[in-house]
Amino acid sequence: MDRAENALLDYFRAGIKSPLQPFRIGTEIEHFVAYTDTRRTLPYSDVADILRSLVPKYPREVSEGGKIIGCARKDAALSLEPGAQLELSVEPKAAIREIEDTYIGFLRDTAPLLGDHDAELVCAGYSPKNTAAETDMIPKVRYRFMDEHFARIGPMGRRMMRCTASCQYSVDYTSEDDFVRKFRLAYALSPILALLSDNAPTYEGKPNRLPLRRTMIWRGVDPARAGIVPGVFDEGFGFESYARFVLEAPAIFRRSGGAYISAEGRSARDIMNGTPDEYLPEAAELYTSLVFPDIRLRGYIELRPMDSVPPERFLAMAALVKGVFIGSERATFAEGVTERSVAAAQDAIANRGLSARVYNTTARALVRETIALAESNLPPDERRYLTPISPSQ
Question: Which domains does the chain possess?
């Protein structure tokens, strides 16, 4: 085992939480900032104006090259995705009501600023009007390197960066065995999570009729760093397996003297093995953030297959994830699942939606089973959050 693998294993082990700690869920939601009349997205300069106006409420400003790209406070952070999508990240919370309160506060803070620009926040999996070709990227150096790298693979990377938006949820793990169980469970459920949040009415400026559009886009981004982690359902999968996945991916760029420089043609392993010891933890965090599988490990387990959805559905998905993973030892969804069957489930749902055959049952039946498990594990006052995604809706 080399220095790079050891650094990643240290990073993953440092993420282990005490089983006595209350179960918490981290949340992120990305929004398009669009003109109310045309639905076209605002340019970076206008979104930057909105961010600057939010700094009194989120006083830790984040800038690059003199350009604002985010701001934060103790329990929440705002940042910009490559196409100026505005992301709210909420620190892990034990109660869904706490997530709701933080999100409502964010919406309240942004409403008058959006009005000044005749704009609104749009929650959708793909840009409501723009095509990728007509969407500029924000001035962030790492995004420029990523854009150049993805362009050599095909068009989907640029579409993903400029025109997609998602909800993401994260859960902790209490041991390596607990990580493996939850990670596999998350992968087995990933097609259902994508289906329940499917929300891309447009694609490249035209009506979209393909379910799981974002999932299909991600498949074409970069097979070395996206999709399904190789070997996730194999015997012996664990922290070392995930570390190898991260380290064999192309590095794209590296940090040197506080700046990003190109690292095309080199792997993350190569870069990290040449990194001084004092900078290895920083490099571990960087390169785990530069792989984009449907389910990701970054000191916590991050569920990434969901489209950006309106507030009520965003909270419903948070309740679903909490309800399933707070009782993950009772879930049986991952039994008999393989990498091939997860991909097949994605394909089937993309073709037939709720009627698709998934793991020898229907997507509709698996949705009902998933929601029933969540209901059984949630406290009574949180079950109401599931209503927007219940099968009767």
Answer: 3-387 (3.30.590.20)
